[in-house]
Design a protein that fits this description.
The complex is a heterodimer. Chain A is about 75% helix and about 0% strand. By secondary structure, chain A is mostly helical. Classes of the chains: A mainly alpha, B mainly alpha.
Amino acid sequence: MYLIPSLIMFGCGVYGFITRKNMIAMLISLELMLNAVDINFAVFNRYLFPNGHEGMFFSLFAIAIAAAETAVAIAIIINVYRVAKKVDINQITKMKF
Amino acid sequence: MDSIGNVIMYFVFALAIIVFSVLAVTTKKILRSATYLLFVLLATAGIYFQMDYEFLGATQIAVYAGGIVVLFVFAIMLTHKPGEDSEALNSHRRALGLTACGLGVLVCGAALFSFMKIRDAVELATSGDYTVNQLGADLLSNKGYLLPFEALSVLLLACIIGAIVIARKR
């Protein structure tokens, strides 16, 4: 039952990740997808294995890793903006071979 | 999932998640997108609270709604001029995105509904022990979470140093 909003959230994340050109907007879509997966971990743990804590710990670790990943990604985006003055992925072609 | 209040709260959270995640990926202004992301994350925390995962919900609010959204807002303000809209999508890209998203949702939704048909009454078990006490004891016991826990602390340290090194002014 909780899987339906999580499924739609994941679908929105996929759509945004493909269609958005702005790097920060792509990162927001990525966060939506990660969040949907966290909900799935928690729901499967709660409904199928209510005596274990595995899914909950997976969600906790996933939240922590998502925070770390977002911090590094935003540092990279700000650095790219400082060099190129743009954050759109189709305008940053300096490293293209 | 028994009392009527729980059902109402479930629908409120589910509707908030669906509406705000659709808005977050379709809105033109990037700052609004970050705000809608904040609402989605808060509704997710509400779902965790409903499942009796109080610690997970509190972590979700503290880390996501308190930390990551603030990071996003700062990054947006540093890299965007105010009032600047993102440009319109071309139809090819939108069609590609809609196809990928629609295919994924279709397959997963079909799996979900067939699963629901098999066992339509999946009841919320009440036998779990989800206090913070129990969680801490599990985390530091020999159940296998100690190594990921320590690895995660090293990862966070590396991430702090990496973020400082990357974003430092030369």
